[in-house]
Structures are given as C-alpha cells and as structure tokens.
Design goal:
Helices cover 44% and strands 18% of the residues. The protein has helices at 2-9, 14-18, 21-30, 32-52, 61-77, 102-111, 134-141, 152-164, 185-192, 207-213, 240-249, 277-282, 308-316, 318-322, 327-339, 343-349, 351-357, 360-377, 416-424, 451-461, and strands spanning 84-85, 119-120, 125-126, 145-149, 168-172, 195-199, 218-224, 254-259, 287-291, 302-306, 381-393, 396-411, 430-431, 433-435, 438-441. The chain has a 7-stranded mixed β-sheet, with helices on both faces. Helix 11 (240-249) links the parallel strand 7 and strand 8 (254-259). The longest helix has 21 residues, at 32-52. The two termini are 42 Å apart.
Length: 463
C-alpha cells in the first residue's frame, strides 16, 4: 500500500503537463478546454491503473505528453467520418442511406453561403423555399402539388395532425409497422392527436373491414408500406385503388405512406413489387409521402405529394414550419431531382440507382479488379471471387435479393471477426460483412477509386 501511495504522489499535476510543448501546440488545433480535459483523462487513467495494480511505474513526461495528443486525435476521429461501404447494401441505414450524386455535392457547396432560399430575385420580394423543388416533384410524379419537410416521419406526422387531430385514423392491423430505432406508426399517430382504429387481422384485411370502421369520427384512411417485411402465404390486403374509391365515397382523404420512394416507373428497377409514387397517385391516393434518402437517392427529406387543396392545408399548419427542410438538404434535393429529368442519366449518376442497376457481369469484372488489387498489396490472406446476392436495404423491396459478385477474404493468421473489427477502425473505416467464415467485399457499393484504399487497409490490418 505504501508503494502505491508513493507512486500516486508522483503523478504530475495537470498544469505541469499542460506546459509541455506538444500539448501547448495541441491547444491551437483542439482548444484549451478540450486539451485540459484530455490531460485529466490521461492522468485519471494512470491513477486508476496504479490503484488496480495494472500499472507499476509512472510513465515519463514524454510518454504522458504523447498519450494526451493521441487521446485528442482519437476523440476527434470518433465524430462523423467517411466510411467505405463494402457490404453491397446500397441503402444501408446505419451508414447514412443514399450517398449523394456529384451534382448534389456541388449544390451543397453553392448553398454553404448566402442563397436565394426565400427571396424572389426577379421581383426582389420574399419567396418560398418550396419554389425550387415542388414543380420538379409534380412533373416527375404526376402530382397536383407537393410539400417537402425534413423526413418521412415528419411528413406522416404533419398529414395526420392536419386531417385527423381528434379523429380516428383507420389502418390495417398488418401495417402497424415499426420503423428505424424503435419508432412505431401507432406512436406517430398518438403524437398527431388522432386515434388509432385498427381493422382486419395481421395477415388478412379486406375492404369491408375499412368500410365497417368508418363513422362520423373518422378523419382519414391510411395505408402503410410494410417496408422491412412482407406477409406471404395465407394473406390479403386492400389495394390503393380500392381504398381510394372507398375514401371518395365517404369524402375521406386517403394517405399512402410508401417510405422508400420509388419515383420511376416500376420497369426501371431491378426488383418487382415495390409500389411506385406515380402509380400510387394514378391509383387515386389523395396524398402520398416518402423519403428523399432512399430509392430517390437524395438527402434526408420527407416528401408529400397529392391534391392541391390538401397540400395547401398542410402548408398552413403550424407544424409545417417546425418540420421544414433546411437549405443544404433542399439544395441537394433540387440537384438530385433535376437528374431525373432524364431517367437514363439518373440511373447513371445517382449512386444508389447506379449500384442497384449494375449488371452481374459488370460486378464480376469489378470484383476481379478488386481481388487483383488486394493480392498486389501483399495482404496476408486468401482471396477469391464468389457469386453473391445482396439486399436493397432501407426497407425497399423486402425479401428480394440482387445477383452480383464479391471478393471473399480469408485471413491466414487471425480470426475473420478480428479482421472485420480492425477494418472498422482503419482510416478510412472499411465496413464489410462476414459470411460463411469469410469476409466479403461487394463492389456494388465500393467506388472503383476506393479499391486501392480497401486493399491498403487490408494489408495494414493483416501486417
């Protein structure tokens, strides 16, 4: 105990370490408050190690100085960082969903300064931020009017709050889904001030179920795309066209929450069964809402399309301002939508669409090129190109897999789980997935310009 006490008394004071040259220089980059905090953490860790018997001597001032600077760098790296998505999942929710097109990135640069966000240049009077994207959305999807807010949950909340506050919202029991991070459709309904009215059963809901539930307290008929799952087998659901006719009969608005936001015609996508925005509007939905950062391939946004008088009512709702889209997202969204003026160009220049549309043979060639890069890097592992299937991600086309190829890596001197963890902490981090005892690198979501970085990260991690 006396030995520990003697060592504890030798721990340098905070101010003494703050005077060290490298620590003083760090104040220029990280700020005095952050540096002082890092110094305290280094010394507290040393103290805890001595008390636990894990540390038996006091490091030199040079070593403590180095630990402090490294702790500061590590803390900064723990923020938002670019990662290489090698999973093959184009809409990876945990990795920010849709990467932006080059045109959208340039629009973000332009929007970083002053811009005519709510200023009409020809007249010199106040303008509306919706002016820039609403006409594009209407033309693309065949809608009377449009409104953009900050995400799809906000779009749903605004619609329900506008038309169903104090009233019942009729929805199929099989569509009461849970979206990301534990948020559930019933919770959003409750926040809107509406009352949930479940109809049908988990696997079967008929039109008569909706009709029998309609009464003087009904405010809206809601249909929700189940996104992350599908009910198959002994099941039945009501189509938008049928629900729209029922809504028109009882003078009730019908809202379709599509979530994923496929705005091209169904034939343009390499999967089937995903409801598209244009078709849903043609089928008679009064309102449609969806995300901007899923199949649309743009920034996070919630997009509402539909009848002019209904959109106008939502624009006047107090929540519309609280939930409105910011200028950077708006600029990126406008640039993304302009690419859709030519669908062929959109599929080439919007990363998500390009990834999903990539043909199998092209992915084979890319996988072979990545495999060669890894071999040439000298990484201590076995490599082979294997056929692989990948999900779309982001709740789009649940249960459907796209064909492609990946590079399977088997490390020679460590467990595959250890290699996966090392790559997650590389610079830049490389996110791959383990399958059947190997680590897979899917070129469907790796830019060819990043092949060298992936190979270098592997070589370093296995070095």
């Amino acid at each position: 105990m006396d030995e520990k006490r003697a060592l504890l008394q030798k721990i340098p004071q905070v101010d003494l370490l703050l005077r060290r040259e490298a620590v003083r220089e760090a104040c220029e980059s990280f700020g005095h408050t952050a540096v002082r905090k890092a110094v305290r953490q280094v010394l507290d860790s040393l103290r805890a190690g001595l008390l636990a018997g894990e540390v038996r001597e006091i490091p030199s001032m040079e070593a403590l100085e180095k630990q402090t600077v490294e702790a500061l760098k590590k803390a900064r790296e723990s923020g938002l960082r670019r990662v290489i998505n090698a999973t093959g999942v184009a809409l990876h929710t945990n990795l920010g969903r849709a990467p932006l097109a080059e045109k959208a990135l340039k629009a973000l640069e332009a929007a970083a300064g002053y811009l005519n966000l709510e200023y009409d240049l020809p007249s010199g009077e106040r303008g509306s931020r919706g002016t820039f994207v609403e006409p594009l959305l209407c033309a693309l999807c065949g809608s009377e009017a449009a409104l953009v807010v900050n995400n799809n949950a906000a779009a749903l909340l605004l619609a329900l709050s506008t038309f169903s506050k104090g009233k019942e919202i009729v929805v199929s029991r099989g569509e009461l889904v849970e979206i990301g991070d534990g948020f559930r459709i019933p919770d959003i309904m409750a926040e809107s001030g509406g009352t949930l009215c479940e109809v049908g059963s988990t696997n079967k809901t008929r039109l008569s179920d909706y009709e029998n539930a309609i009464n003087e307290q009904t405010g809206m008929l809601l249909k929700v795309h189940t996104s992350n799952y599908r009910v198959i087998g002994f099941s039945a659901s009501v189509q938008v066209r049928e629900l729209a006719a029922l809504g028109a009969k009882h003078n009730l608005p019908v809202l379709a929450d599509l979530g994923s936001g496929a705005v091209l015609e169904a034939s343009e996508y390499p999967f089937s069964g995903e409801p598209t925005v244009p078709q849903t509007l043609r089928d008679g939905a009064d309102l449609v809402c969806f995300s901007g950062d899923k199949l649309l391939g743009g920034p996070q946004a919630g997009i509402l399309l539909g009848k002019k008088e209904l959109i106008a009512r939502m624009k006047r709702h107090p929540l519309a301002r609280a939930l409105r889209i910011d200028k950077l997202s708006l600029a990126a969204l406008e640039a993304t939508l302009r690419l859709y003026e030519n669908p062929k160009r959109a599929k080439e220049e919007i990363p998500v669409l390009a990834s999903l549309s990539a043909v199998s043979e092209s992915l084979r060639r890319q996988a072979q090129a990545l495999c060669r890069e890894i071999v040439e890097s000298g990484a201590d592992c076995g490599t082979r190109v294997v056929p692989q299937q990948r999900p779309v991600g982001g709740g789009a086309a649940p249960g459907q897999l796209l064909d492609g190829f990946a590079v399977a890596v088997c490390p020679h001197r460590c467990a595959v789980e250890q290699l996966e963890a090392l790559l997650r902490n590389a610079n830049p981090p490389v996110i791959a997935r383990i399958f059947d005892g190997e680590l897979l690198f899917d070129p469907a979501t790796i830019s060819e310009s990043d092949f060298e970085a992936v190979a270098a990260a592997l070589a370093k991690s296995l070095g």
